């Protein structure tokens, strides 16, 4: 029988049952992809992070949704850093997570307990001109809105800008139609916030997640847009899912620094009797 640890962490929140839950599975080496996917499917969380330690403060990380591996995930990286920092008894002043598709991600403990600063590559939005997005992708019908303020492409996702937080809160998303936009990982919808700089909701039925509670990686695309529009390098963001989540976002040249907190919900063991 093969046993190994598993943790579940609520990320981008300071309280249990808030933010976005992620599973973190430390491994001596990565298992075959099929087994990693089976574990993530069994966990049935938006992401499971598999982490392999190779040297002091150096980690390799991969992320799986219940249906697919993804190139970049913010909240599961935050969860992994939280687990690694506490399991190392605070010995790490800095953690470097090497990825297969997003370079090396640096994470540092923040000034408050349970807070972390993560440096991710910035994703510069590319405007979809004219009515192309509306005509070809049917985004107004998908979202149940009459007008779009802007449509932009990122490396992974499509981003729609609306005029108000109220519009973002009242979306009526056609997930079946959205799932057909397979050229994108998902759809980000954002607007100016009432009490924060900007708000968003993020939808990923293409990878088995209708609405993600809090999406760190989405803010690598959202932050450059809102930084340019608002003329600010540091912004406070709120993701308006049912669980909700808060992020501090800083544009630092070609990097985005995301600051958030995390809380451990459970720890346990996975038992693979047949492997």
TrEMBL record:
Mind telling me which Pfam families this protein's record contains? PhzC-PhzF
Task: List keywords of the entry alphabetically.
Answer: Isomerase
* InterPro entries associated with the record: Phenazine_PhzF-like
Family, as annotated: Belongs to the PhzF family.
Which protein is depicted?
PhzF family phenazine biosynthesis protein
| The species this protein was found in | Neolewinella antarctica
Q: From which lineage does this chain's organism come?
A: Bacteria, Pseudomonadati, Bacteroidota, Saprospiria, Saprospirales
């Amino acid at each position: 029988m093969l046993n190994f640890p598993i943790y579940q962490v609520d990320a981008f929140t300071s309280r249990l049952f808030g933010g976005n839950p992620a599973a973190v599975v430390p491994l001596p080496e990565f298992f075959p992809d099929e087994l990693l996917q089976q574990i993530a499917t069994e966990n049935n969380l938006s992401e499971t992070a598999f982490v392999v330690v190779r040297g002091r403060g150096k980690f390799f990380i991969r992320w799986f949704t219940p249906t697919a591996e993804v190139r970049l995930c913010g909240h599961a990286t935050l969860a992994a850093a939280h687990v690694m920092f506490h399991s190392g008894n605070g010995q790490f002043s800095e953690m470097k997570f090497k990825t297969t598709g997003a370079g090396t991600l640096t994470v540092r403990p923040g000034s408050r307990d349970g807070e972390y600063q993560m440096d991710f590559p910035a994703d510069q939005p590319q405007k979809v001109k004219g009515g192309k997005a509306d005509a070809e992708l049917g985004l107004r019908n998908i979202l149940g809105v009459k007008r779009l303020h802007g449509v932009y492409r990122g490396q992974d996702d499509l981003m729609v800008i609306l005029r108000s937080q109220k519009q973002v809160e009242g979306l009526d998303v056609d997930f079946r139609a959205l799932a057909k936009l397979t050229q994108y990982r998902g759809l980000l919808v954002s607007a100016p916030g009432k009490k924060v700089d900007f708000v968003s909701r993020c939808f990923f039925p293409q990878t088995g997640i209708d609405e993600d509670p809090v999406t760190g990686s989405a803010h690598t695309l959202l932050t450059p847009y809102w930084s340019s529009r608002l003329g600010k390098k540091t912004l406070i963001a709120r993701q308006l899912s049912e669980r909700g989540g808060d992020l501090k976002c800083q544009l630092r040249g070609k990097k985005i620094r995301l600051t958030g907190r995390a809380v451990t919900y459970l720890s346990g063991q996975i038992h693979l009797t047949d492997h």
